[in-house]
Amino acid sequence: MTTARTPGTQGGGPLSGVRVVELAGIGPGPFAAMLLADLGADVVRVDRPGGPGLGIAPEYDVTNRNKRSIVVDLKTPDGPARVLDLAARADILLEGYRPGVAERLGVGPGDCLARNPRLVYGRMTGWGQDGPLAPRAGHDVAYIALTGTLGMIGRPDEPPAVPANLLGDYAGGSLYLVVGVLAALHHARATGTGQVVDAAIVDGTAHLSAMIHGMLAAGGWQDRRAANLLDGGCPYYGTYETADGGYMAVGALEGQFYEEFLRLLGLADLAPARADWTRWDELRAHIAARFKSRTRDEWTAVFEGSDACVAPVLSLREAPHHPHLAARGTFTDHGGITQPAPAPRFSATPTTVRGGPALPGADTAAVAREWGIPALVSDDPVTDAD
What we know:
Layout: E1 19-23, H1 28-38, E2 42-47, E3 67-71, H2 79-89, E4 92-95, H3 101-105, H4 109-115, E5 120-125, H5 140-147, H6 166-191, E6 195-200, H7 201-208, H8 210-217, E7 237-241, E8 247-251, H9 255-265, H10 280-291, H11 296-303, E9 310-312, H12 323-328, E10 331-334, E11 337-340, H13 364-370
Parallel strand pairs: 1-2, 1-4, 2-3, 4-5, 5-6
Antiparallel strand pairs: 7-8, 8-9, 10-11
Helix pairs in contact: 1-6, 2-4, 5-7, 6-7
């Protein structure tokens, strides 16, 4: 159901006019809701009293940008009714509880779809809604461990390298949840029928490795770390330390890029080693020695303007200042916080950071008015100034 909006409650992105209810949690759920908000949806985050368990200070939680917040205690007698009122007026609802928790709180799919048959009910978990591990607790590192993807990352003589929580929570979790709810929203608008989207981090992360499984079946991938073309086993696809302790990333896979890489490195005579894996250790040693002879900035200058597929490994604080990222506006400053700008980009419906992190309960009055739910403010002492 869509109604007229007041200025400032939605963005100009492609999801302008879409209403989303986010039941507050941590990790992949908030990130998925942020992505929908970045794309222009009117996202109302239902915060719980006291905030999430692993939260940072609300004013710094960038995953809550472009959203609005109300506070509802689902354990009070009228708490579930407030959420159901929101669900009745929403296009999408997102929750990240363990299986069965939303049902026990009275805001599960059955209750919400009874109020709004067109609703897309998105569920974000690590293990999924069923299976032996479904009721168990977990975090990103355990989810990606079971899918085989964690075991692919790192040196063979060291423990697997943990890729922060980017691979599981956000790539295998948030992005698949967003794809799922948008596909279901398309179906709901075409048929009038909503549905439940079960987005499990184990499913999404496993799906990300589809190409690797094909290569494994074809004999083109070894099931061990740093023994393959794309996992650091190949000497011309990986990272190398420089004289000042920095690192350069090398991805010179194709023949013409590889030849340019070796030429600029001063090792053109080693070109035949590319296709001879028995010489890869020799090639790696020569490349490593060359990179150790100059600083990261010096090597960056050497490869500037080339097609050698070489780049400096930048820190989080350095990245926004790289000339290419600065020229594209890949990062933006809002409210004193440097943060990634919304992505991807749209020619007709551009996106932007419209507002900073939503502070818990700060938007109750505006949401109550615009969504037509006066009961939200009847007993709520925390409202905005509108």
